[in-house]
Amino acid sequence: SKRGYNSKWRQARLGYLSKHPFCVSCMMEGRRVPATVVDHIKPHKGDKKLFWDSGNWQPLCAPCHSRKTAKEDGGFGNRTSNVHV
Is residue 1 part of a domain? Predict the structure, then answer.
């Protein structure tokens, strides 16, 4: 909630997912997988303007979001990068 993920975000997230119901990453592979996460394409790092810029949002399923976050943050033994799913 400190990072902006509050009730206002939850409401925006639900509205976005209702208009963009499928994971964009899976769709590029020919699979229709329901999106459950609204991802910030470019990490906002606390920048409220970037946080609320819906042009910086994309619908992802949880596994794709986890992979993208791990690549960006260097998780799972990966080095950090600017690679986006």
Answer: no
Choose between 72 and 75: higher pLDDT: 72
Q: Which tokens belong to 6?
A: 């509050």
Give the whole-angstrom CA distance, residue 13 versus residue 66: 17
The three-state secondary structure class of 58 is strand
In a domain, 57, yes or no: yes
Tokens 């920048």 belong to 47
**Domain, as residue range, for 40:** 7-73
pTM for the whole structure: 0.82
> What are 81's two structure tokens?
């990068």
Whole-angstrom distance, CA of residue 55 vs CA of residue 29: 22
